[in-house]
Description:
By secondary structure, this protein is mostly helical.
Amino acid sequence: MVKLSWQWKFALLLIGLIVIPGIMLAYFSVQAIESERVAYEQRIRESYLRLARFAEDEFYDQFEVLSDRWIQQLRPTIFVDADPAEQQQLLIEMIAEDPLVDAAFLVQSDGDVVFPKSLHPGAVRLNAPEAESLSDLDEWLQKFRRLSELAEEFEFNRSMPDSALAIFHKIEQDFPVPRLRAIALSEISRIHLYRAEWKSAYETSQRLIRRYPQARDLNNLHLRFYAKFVCVNTLENMQLMDEAMPALLDLYQDLLDNSDEVNRVQYEFFLERIQQNFKKLIGAYTPDEQAHFRSIYQNLQQRKKKSIGETYIVEKLYQRLNKAILKRNNYRPKFKYFSDFAVEQPYLVAYLLMSENENFI
């Protein structure tokens, strides 16, 4: 047996009595500090939550007062029976007299924008069915969803894309709702793209762009942007480089010109893909062509997303009008609200469903 010298015994004693307890003390001290930090953050969070609840209560109290004031200004029971000129004058006076009202809109169930007249008369009419009342739209939506689910089953679970294509072709040919026909065309284009059927995908996307340039999908995303993106990819794969880069820059230009009609998530989705495709395509051109395309691209990059515009707000209002009619909601003289962020700035929209003319403000 090896005997330890007194120095080793002393060192072990020192480790046992000082070093190990010191390490343990440091460990528990760190744990205590971390626990205190977590507790402090929890107290701060609870404090902010109390302030938020207080602010929320104050917010709703203030908006109850504002809502009552707006109801008195508009007098809904009189408003719905007024002629369009009187309705527009009431809204103009409301904007002028109330500093909290930045803009007002009057949208009919057929998609017409009665006020302001600066908007295109059919800004949201693509959502309405042809030769059908809006109350029938729910039936067409349910049919569309059932057929879409069946097409998805054929395409992804049974590996029968031809059957899925047949379903979407039937929707595109037979449905009376332009928006649903446009969505079907977009799905047809997507399936052709995934099957590397470049010409068919390109021609279908071009048909969508020509027939339904303002159509949106059920998530309110512009179908035109996706169709143009498909065109860029198919032109590249068909080695039509003379058209591919101009098509990409056209998509970029279109996105910027109409960025007030899309939210930031949608905008950044396409912007990222435009950037990726530009880097991928630019190498296929001569130095002179590259310089030309880079100049155009850099000029476009200098532009920023515009704040959301009137068309975007009207689309949001029309969606709520559709939903209320489909659900057969009771129309009460009471304002509702929705909010979101646009270019890092929040906005709030108050809307009112009118009873007789099925109008939103």
